[in-house]
Amino acid sequence: MPPIDRREFLKMLGVTAATSGLIACGKADNGTAGTPEAPAAAASGADPLAGFYDLPMQGNARILHITDVHGQLNPVYFREPNVNLGVGDAFGRPPHVVGKGLLDYMGLTTDSPEAYAYTYLDFDNAARKYGMTGGFAHVKTLLDRLREQAGGRANTLTIDGGDLWQGSGTSLWTRGVDMVEASNILGLDVMVGHWEFTYREDEVLSNVALFKGDFIGQNVRVKEDSLFGDEYASMVEKFDGRGLYNEDSGHAFRPYVIKNVGGARICVVGQAFPRTANANPQEFFPDWSFGLREDDMIELVEEIRADEKPDAVVLLSHNGMDVDIKMAERVPGLNAVFGGHTHDGIPKPVEVKNVEGNTCYVTNAGSNGKYIGVMDFDIQDGGIKGMNYKMLPIISNMLPADGEMEAYISQMRQTVYDDKIVESRNSKFFYNPTRVGKTFEEILGEKLAIADRLLYRRGNFMGTWDQILCNALRHEYDADVAMSAGVRWGTTTLKGDWITMEDVMTQCAMTYGETYVSEMSGKNLMNILEAVADNLFDPDPYLQSGGDMVRIGGLDYTIEPSKPLYERLTDARLDNGHVIEADRMYKVAGWASVGKAPEGRLMWDVVRDYILATKGDDDVLVLPKINHPKLLGVADNPGIADYPGEVG
After folding, report:
1. Cα 486–Cα 639–Cα 129 angle in degrees, nearest 5
2. Cβ proximity of 360 and 352 under 8 Å
């Protein structure tokens, strides 16, 4: 089936400022769908923004930063990790400090909105107290207020660190168009990408054409064979030259932009996720290459400083925070790094001294629309005389919803799922006929079961949502073991709340969600786990992937992160106690293959059917066991607290 036409989709919505009078969708019983009601304070005439969201301008140029929204247009719950281990130079350095340790490090108090926003501490109760976080209608309200406090939009620049277009049912079904239009309403000026590239190249270029801001990336190049090919040239021409910024250098997109902010010239250099071609299927971007390209970055910043004479140079990055810190040390001329990819909610920037002895501020603004990072520069005489930074958590009930954004989201979710919807790269799963004729809201609002505990995903090792995914794979294929990627997106469901189809889609929605089962030797299984652990715990940030450990269902193991490759994992055994044997074959199920598309059903359908088949008569889904690995050598690491498994 052909993909949905973007312009047709937007025309169908008819979204204009006039739609702000539309009635928003009601809040679902578990609070996971629709838009929250305005807080009582707003209804009574009191200002719900007073105090907590007052941030007068401290300088003349304000940069507003969001990142890793992952398609979440409505408010969500999102629990921060209790395990985020730092190794090598990152030991004990943010973001590798969790819980009470992070609050102490940042000078924040417990039992506060900040404690709820930045930590996992008492999350269930704190979530009941403070409510959901994020939501683009609430993000826009705060962005507009911060712009006003800065003296108007002319004094501000709003930037996004990537992973904006993927992570929800609506973003999958519209191929990211829902997020592009929402970001235009939000007033986004500049962005970079990662999961954006997991749509087809023509879909990416179409979205870039619809985006009213600048899509940049100094490390995204057109491959040489494609650079001079007629097919790629034809596609680029179709989208008004987007996708080939410079034929001589091979840059697919503009590597940087210079914006006038508060009378100062600020250069924003873009850095897409450097390991995109390793982490995601290359079939989606056959004409593009990625990489860290540090040498190119050094040369580019030097040329910008010499030729453009900007007042400040900042990096908008999707490297991950540890990589950003190392790059800030090694690339002269950067004043700040606004990072993404690793979803780290860091209240204060890390101050880095570069090779020339100058300070660079490295930040990361979390995920799921949960935070806005605000950096004010005092720029005088062609240089930065002062800097002030504050990250503001978006606690939805403390902010009224913006009418225009709320109306857009409401109307977009009334879109009817039809046979133009593309769900998978496998033609077998282009669309699901059981969903045809229903609105997005109806599909996503389906109640599946009641959670028997807090369901979360974020953390270096197994989360409770991850266990559901692994259990579903084992149930589908009667497998000994299930593997699920340690990605950091996926929202949280509170104990006692209904698990909806929307919750499932936040865990699974991607363009390569096909499942599979295969026979694998014990040796190969362990080697895969060792390789993933090395990607996570190599002391050199440039050799890390920036994700978490692959989730393993049906198998327990012991891991010592400080050990070298092929020495970290020991004592691996199935749930029945069977010790993994190197030469024995095991039935292993998985999903999200970066290789050829498997033939198995899509992951969200597998998970939905598992939940419906295994919940009790009281509608409660019970998880009999969580496969938490045993951890060795981390007892004194400030990146772990309240771990539910064994720690040695």
Report:
1. 85
2. yes
Q: What is the rounded (10 degree) CA torsion for 125, 126, 132, 134?
A: -150
DSSP 381-404: TTEEEEEEEEEEE-BGGGSPPPHH
Both 453 and 353 in a single domain? Answer: no
Q: How do residues 105-142 score in pLDDT, each as one tens digit?
A: 999 999 999 999 999 999 999 999 999 999 999 999 99
Summarize pLDDT for 258-282 with one digit per residue, the tens: 999 999 999 999 999 999 999 999 9
Q: For residue 504, is it within any domain?
A: yes
- Integer-rounded Cα Rg, in Å, for the chain is 23
Is the Cβ–Cβ distance between 481 and 555 less than 8 Å?
A: yes
- pTM (2 decimals)? 0.93
Instruction: Give the domain extent around 200.
Output: 49-407
Asked whether residue 200 is assigned to any structural domain, the reply reads yes
Q: What is the pLDDT of residues 515-525, one digit of tens each?
A: 999 999 999 99
Answer yes or no: are the C-beta atoms of 184 and 211 closer than 8 Å: yes
Residue 32 inside a domain? The answer is no
In-domain check, residue 378: yes
As a whole number of angstroms, the distance between CA 412 and CA 420 comes to 16
Residue 258 three-state SS: strand
User: What's 276-344 look like in SS3?
Assistant: HHHHCCHHHCCCEECCCCHHHHHHHHHHHHHHCCCCEEEEEECCCHHHHHHHHHHCCCCCEEEECCCCC
| Positions in the chain whose pLDDT score sits under 70 | 1-50
- Give me the count of residues in the chain: 648
Residue 350 CB partners (closer than 8 Å, separation 6+): 93, 94, 321, 325, 361, 362, 363
In a shared domain, residues 400 and 443: no
- The Cα 166–Cα 299 span in angstroms is 32
Q: What is the pLDDT of residue 51?
A: 87
Structure tokens at 311: 């007042």
Together in a domain, 504 and 615: yes
> Residues with Cβ < 8 Å from 6, sequence gap 6 or more?
174, 175, 177, 180, 206, 207, 210
**Cα(156)–Cα(146) distance, integer angstroms:** 9
Q: Give me the pLDDT at residue 48, please.
A: 43
Place of tokens 């109806």: 442
Rounded Cα distance between 21 and 399, Å, is 19
CA dihedral 611, 615, 619, 620 (to 10 degrees): -100
Q: Does 289 lie in the same domain as 227?
A: yes
- Number of separate domains in the chain: 2
**CA–CA gap between residue 11 and residue 177 (Å, rounded):** 12
